């Protein structure tokens, strides 16, 4: 259990948060199936990315990790070797689903397992479309891990996604790379496109049509190892953007943050809520990036719906926290995907906000939140429930408490942000 710090004098300073989780996973995967060496700088050493790293070592890829620098000795699209034990996906949905797509076309069998939370998450959403490519994935009766991926020759397919999910899309792209002709994958709504961007950098032909939804993948590319600099993770920066906005006397600069438009929903939310936010784009020849300045803000309420969700999916707990400190009623709808994350993030966010005295109504696909100027603590023990993003949301909420709050199951934060409390301390500048 962790005693959470408060910030009576606000948060100040400049911070570069760690590398992006989604991009770190993809750099490991695409580097491993490329020929020659790939160098990754500013790699995220969160537990999720370490699960991906270990899985590729288990599949016979030599990978060195020193600090946040990774060297991969790529084995090419046909060089992976069967592991002699089940691959442990840990807590990581991204690792599991993307690897299912990649392993579906490999000439061997793989067994995938994960922690208790991951074993509850839906995997049919990947297994079903992969079967259209000729893939074979056996899941538990509930459609979850443990899974057996029985590698098969894959066929070119045109597939319309049934869920707005970058993980499912990316799994199908990785399968399509191994198919016997060009495939087309059509999304419901645009989702993060890091897989497409990185595959192009490594030499694959992956085209996104003008509609922003239709992706054509040419098979059997010769991927060439590259040098990748991972930008800072906007999903991690978001905790301090929200902290800066809701904590009195704050002014924070977050540098080199990834500003890929499929990820910047939290910036639009902050702008719509009239937060004091300045976005300064920086030149970049890869993923867009920039610096973000946030200051203590008077927040207006917000309403967001289904079309807004993909670009802010992992920040929705923070949107709820912003709403809890805005002047008036906010509504989040169309966010039923939250129910199948590390926890049911609608239920867990509602539970934690109620401990702070917030009036919040739970909806099947979101919540209605009544903003308030200060917390009215009902329960001093907050809980991550084993969900990294819930743990960090609670730590940010506690900054403005005038009583001491604690956090149970704080270790979950290491999944995506191992240095979170050290970075928070830096911005607290020695306050208790
Ligand atoms: O592709 C990715 O890296 C991710 C996609 C999202 O999941 P879904 O594809 O399930 O929406 C997101 O919630 C997750 O944290 C990372
Ligand atoms: C949902 C998340 O990750 P994953 O699906 O990879 O477990 C997340 O990081 O919030």
Task: Describe the protein's architecture and organization.
One of its GO terms (cellular component) is cytoplasm. This is 3-phosphoshikimate 1-carboxyvinyltransferase. It is an enzyme of class 2 (transferase). Its main location: cytoplasm. The radius of gyration is 21 Å and the shape is globular. The protein is 29% helix and 23% strand. It has two domains: 215 residues, Enolpyruvate transferase domain (UDP-n-acetylglucosamine1-carboxyvinyl-transferase, Chain, Alpha-beta prism); 194 residues, Alpha-beta prism (UDP-n-acetylglucosamine1-carboxyvinyl-transferase, Chain), CATH 3.65.10. α1 runs parallel beside α2. β12 and β13 form a beta hairpin. Strands 2-15-17-16 form a four-stranded mixed β-sheet. A four-stranded mixed β-sheet has the order 4-5-3-14, with helices on one face. A four-stranded mixed β-sheet has the order 6-7-9-8. The chain is α/β, with parallel strands linked by helices and 432 residues long. The site of shikimate-3-phosphate (S3P) has 11 residues, from α3 and α5.
């Amino acid at each position: 259990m962790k005693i959470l710090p408060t910030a009576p004098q606000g948060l100040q300073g400049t911070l570069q948060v760690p590398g992006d989780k989604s991009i770190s996973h993809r750099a490991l995967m695409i580097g491993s199936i490329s020929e020659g060496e790939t160098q990754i700088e500013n790699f995220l050493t969160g537990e999720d990315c370490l699960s991906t790293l270990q899985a590729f070592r288990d599949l016979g890829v030599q990978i060195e990790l020193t600090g946040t620098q990774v060297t991969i000795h790529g084995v090419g699209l046909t060089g992976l070797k069967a592991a002699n034990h089940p691959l442990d996906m840990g807590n990581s949905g991204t690792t599991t689903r993307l690897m299912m797509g990649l392993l579906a076309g490999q000439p061997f069998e793989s067994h995938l397992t994960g922690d208790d939370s991951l074993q509850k998450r839906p995997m049919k959403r990947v297994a079903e479309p992969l079967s259209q490519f000729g893939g074979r994935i056996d899941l538990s009766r509930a459609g979850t891990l443990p899974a057996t991926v029985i590698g098969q020759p894959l066929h070119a397919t045109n597939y319309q996604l049934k869920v707005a999910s970058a993980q499912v899309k990316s799994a199908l792209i990785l399968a399509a790379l191994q198919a016997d002709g060009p495939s087309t994958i059509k999304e419901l709504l645009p989702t993060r496109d890091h897989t497409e961007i990185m595959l192009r950098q490594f030499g694959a032909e992956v085209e996104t049509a003008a509609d922003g939804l239709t992706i054509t993948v040419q098979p059997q590319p010769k991927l060439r190892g590259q040098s990748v600099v991972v930008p800072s993770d906007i999903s991690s920066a978001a905790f301090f953007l929200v902290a800066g906005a809701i904590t009195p006397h704050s002014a924070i600069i977050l540098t080199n943050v990834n500003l890929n438009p499929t990820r910047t929903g939290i910036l639009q939310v902050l702008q719509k809520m009239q937060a004091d936010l300045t976005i300064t784009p920086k030149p970049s020849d890869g993923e867009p990036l920039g610096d973000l300045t946030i200051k203590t803000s008077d927040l207006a309420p917000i309403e967001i719906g289904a079309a807004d969700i993909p670009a802010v999916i992992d920040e929705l707990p923070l949107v709820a926290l912003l709403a809890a400190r805005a002047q008036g009623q906010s509504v989040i709808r169309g966010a039923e995907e939250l129910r199948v994350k590390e926890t049911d993030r609608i239920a867990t966010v509602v539970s934690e906000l109620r401990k702070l005295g917030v009036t919040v109504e739970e909806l099947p696909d979101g919540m209605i939140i009544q903003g308030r100027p200060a917390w009215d603590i009902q329960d001093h023990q907050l809980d991550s429930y084993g969900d990294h993003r819930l743990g960090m949301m609670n730590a940010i909420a506690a900054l403005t408490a005038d009583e001491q709050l604690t956090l149970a199951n704080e270790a979950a934060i290491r999944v995506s942000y191992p240095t979170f409390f050290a970075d928070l301390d830096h911005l607290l500048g020695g306050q208790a």
